[in-house]
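Checklist before submission:
- one chain only
- standard amino acids only
- sequence pasted in full

Submission:
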Amino acid sequence: MSDRLDDLERRIDGLRAGVRKAMRVRDGATARALRAELRTAEREWDALVSGEPSQAKPEPPRLVTVREQVHQGLRLLGAPAQPRLVVAVSDVFFGGTIRSAQLTSLRRDEERSFRSSPHGRPYYLCAALTDRLSPARGLLTLSTWPLERRVVGPLSPRVDFLTCAVAVASHESPDGRADRLLLRMARNIPGATDGTLGPPDPDRVIEAARAELRVHGDRDTRDRAELAERAAAQLGDAARLFGAATLSTIKKENAK
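Returned file contents:
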C-alpha cells in the first residue's frame, strides 16, 4: 500500500506542476486535461488512505490522443524508434488505436507548436538528429530525453533496436500479443531464439540483446557524446529538438 501511495503522490505532484505550467503559457486545453487527471488521482489517493471505495461519480474515460499514445510508446521503448514500432508497442501494451499514417505530420505539428510557444508543453515529440545535425528520417524521440539519446551515430540504429528489444522483453501484455512482437524482434538478434516457432523466452532475448550491446555500446556512447556536444554548441533550442534545416529543406520552403 505504501508503494502505491508514494506513486500516487508523485503523480499528483507532477500533475499539479503540469497544470501550473500550462496555465502560465495559457494552454487551456492541456490545463483542463491535466486537471481531470489530477481529480482522478486525488480520488484514488483518498480511497486508498481511507480503505473505502471512492464515492465520487466516476468520470468517463478520457480520450487518449494520438500524441499521448506515441508518448506512451516511446517512453516504454526508451530509444529513438520508427513509427511502425511505436504503433505496435502502443497497440500491444496500451490498447492503442493509432496508425502509422497518422504520425506523418505529427513532428511538423510539434515543431510549429514549439516555435509558437517555446517550452509550452511538458514534452514534445521530436526528431532524432543525424551526424549532420539534421532530422533523421522516420525516427521519433522525446524532448525530455537527454541530447545524447536523441542523436544517432553509425552504430545507433543497431544499439537502439537492441535497447527496444530489451524493453519489449521486459514487459508483458495482458493478452499475450507481446510474444508475437518480441518474436519478430528476436529473429534479428543472434542467440535470442532456440530456432522453434514458439514464443521466445524473454530472459533469453534480454541476455542476447545485452551481450551484443556490450560489443557496440561503448563506441556508440562515444559517438553520441561527440554529436551531442556539437549539437549543443551549434544549434538553438528549436533545432536541438527538430534538427537543423538542410539545403533541400530550404529549397522546399523557398518554393512554397
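Reviewer check: The longest strand covers residues 135-142.
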